[in-house]
Structure prediction request, 247 residues.
Amino acid sequence: MGSHVGCWSIIEEEAGWRKGPWTAEEDRLLIEYVRMHGEGRWNSVSRLAGLKRNGKSCRLRWVNYLRPDLKRGQITPQEESIIIELHARWGNRWSTIARSLPGRTDNEIKNYWRTHFKKKAKSPINVSEKAKNRLLRRQQFQQQQKQQQQLQLDMKGIVALLEDSNNHYEVPSTLCSMANFYPNNAEEQGCFYSMISTIDNNDNSSAPEALNEEILWDGLWNLDDFHGNFSATNTTSKANLHNLVVS
DNA sequence: AAAACAGGCAACCGCGGAAGG
DNA sequence: ACCTTCCGCGGTTGCCTGTTT
Prediction:
């Protein structure tokens, strides 16, 4: 996004603090201040740097925009999968998630999540949204063909366990681990747990072949249904799930 | 061509915890 | 023990821009 000059009406508060978008001159003053004094003591910035900004505003500007170690550009697929995984583990603890992504700010990650994932979780409400979703699904269909191939590779890890009678009783616990991978998401956990329960119900003998491969496929497709385009964006995540299985 | 809509993101706000007096 | 200040975090706002109707 380009410069946002003019997007906020500049307000001079009673206390004399400036608000709204930062000017190049203000940025320069802040950078200069941090270079001389280091980070911290933000409330003294206005006095020492000649900025009419409060401490909070200065800190925010530095942390989210001016820090030299910030990574510019789009979130990469690798970063995206890390965000998904860490959010599944920690929820909205953006600063914690940001620590695992050098060069990315909590604000950036929070914005990314809200724009890319939060809306996808909502079911479509009106007709235009449904139409849009249909179009999206069509566009994603071809992509999913490729993703399915990757998924099949992941499945091989599970199926390998199924085919090994020595591992028969390890499968439910493995699925349990995968369910625990989503501690904050009851629906996703439910998919894994339903697989486990189906396995248990079919377990009328100790024969491993009672564990039908379709059971697991169904469960995984349910996961995809839940996410809509889960597989279109989450290859790495699945790879990690596979790692979980293998481990 | 223009209006309406949605996406993206910088910046603000309120709250709570830590530190210092 | 209490109060004040500072800092950091998560939530929210509001404008610009690109896309769709």
User: Anything to note?
Assistant: Chain A has twelve helices and no strands. Residues 1-4, 6-8, 40-43, 55-56, 59, 63, 92-95, 106-107, 110, 128, 132 of chain A lie near DNA strand C (CB under 10 Å from a C1'). Confidence is low (pLDDT under 50) at residues 1-9, 122-247 of chain A.
